[in-house]
Inverse folding.
């Protein structure tokens, strides 16, 4: 974990620890107390946080293994697609760009390119899977080609979301008798290889785990409140812009990138029942991308990240 994110996690843990001992409306003033006391509170929670995150990672990793019971052929094809995806995406974007210049000819060119790249049989099978999915036929084993077709068809995650291609991830959390439900586009996948951190985050990433959009669920110690989480975030970044989502108790804190080495991030304090969770929506920096352009890309996806945060919940007992 880089130094900046280590300081941020310390601030979050400290604010939550203090929040256990004070009423919610007093959280901001409590976090502002003597620095030494805050550091002691953070240190006291560190081991608990690490243990909780390990269990969280295991629970979601187990879920991923159960939902990807591939045949040998499908598993091999899935690995091939993942390896070839950067080149495939580049070729697709090139064909699309050429087609936009040539008008109607683009559809035929892109269609032929798809057939040459994937084979008609593979495309038909993936299209059938997507049709069944839209018709309510449940199948935990996603066709290997589906995430990539969706990523090409809906490069904007909000479009895929609005089309109904979504998947729920039930995340088992210690101390909760029912899992936390996290909903994400179908083309996304679990990913733990992020610049934000390593084992400290359970993350999902666009384009089957290779894209530039990320959602991360960050562990929040028991006793935290929306106010204490926000206070911790503001302590880490006093310039952060805080906003309450409409018709909601969710609070979003905006961390714009300030240097060419940072990504742009939204943090959300999400109350669900008697617990609060911290969710991160992040846009990763493209090669040579300017900071202003990166921040604009995050803001352009604000509706999507807001939708994800607003759809995190614990299912009622049946």
């Amino acid at each position: 974990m880089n130094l900046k994110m280590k300081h941020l996690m310390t601030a979050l843990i400290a604010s939550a620890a203090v929040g256990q001992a004070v009423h919610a409306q007093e959280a901001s003033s409590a976090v502002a107390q003597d620095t030494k006391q805050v550091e002691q509170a953070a240190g006291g929670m560190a081991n608990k946080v690490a243990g909780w995150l390990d269990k969280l990672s295991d629970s979601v990793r187990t879920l991923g293994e159960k939902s990807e019971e591939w045949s040998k052929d499908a598993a091999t094809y899935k690995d091939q697609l993942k390896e070839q995806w950067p080149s495939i995406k580049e070729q697709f974007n090139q064909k699309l760009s050429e087609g936009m210049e040539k008008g109607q000819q683009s559809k035929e060119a892109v269609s032929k390119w798809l057939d040459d790249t994937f084979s008609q049989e593979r495309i038909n099978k993936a299209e059938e899977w997507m049709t069944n999915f839209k018709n309510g036929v449940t199948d935990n084993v996603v066709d290997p080609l589906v995430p990539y077709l969706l990523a090409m068809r809906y490069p904007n995650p909000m479009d895929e979301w609005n089309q109904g291609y979504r998947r729920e991830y039930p995340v088992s959390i210690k101390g909760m008798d029912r899992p936390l439900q996290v909903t994400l586009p179908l083309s996304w996948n679990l990913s733990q290889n992020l610049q934000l951190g390593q084992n400290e985050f359970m993350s999902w990433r666009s384009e089957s785990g290779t894209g530039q959009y990320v959602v991360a669920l960050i562990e929040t110690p028991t006793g935290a409140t929306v106010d204490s989480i926000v206070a911790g975030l503001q302590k880490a970044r006093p310039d952060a812009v805080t906003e309450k989502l409409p018709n909601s108790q969710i609070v979003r804190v905006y961390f714009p990138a300030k240097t060419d080495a940072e990504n742009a991030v939204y943090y959300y304090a999400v109350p669900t029942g008697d617990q609060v969770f911290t969710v991160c929506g992040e846009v990763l920096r493209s090669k040579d991308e300017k900071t202003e352009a990166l921040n604009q890309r995050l803001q352009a996806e604000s509706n999507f990240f807001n939708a994800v945060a607003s759809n995190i919940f614990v299912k009622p007992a049946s």
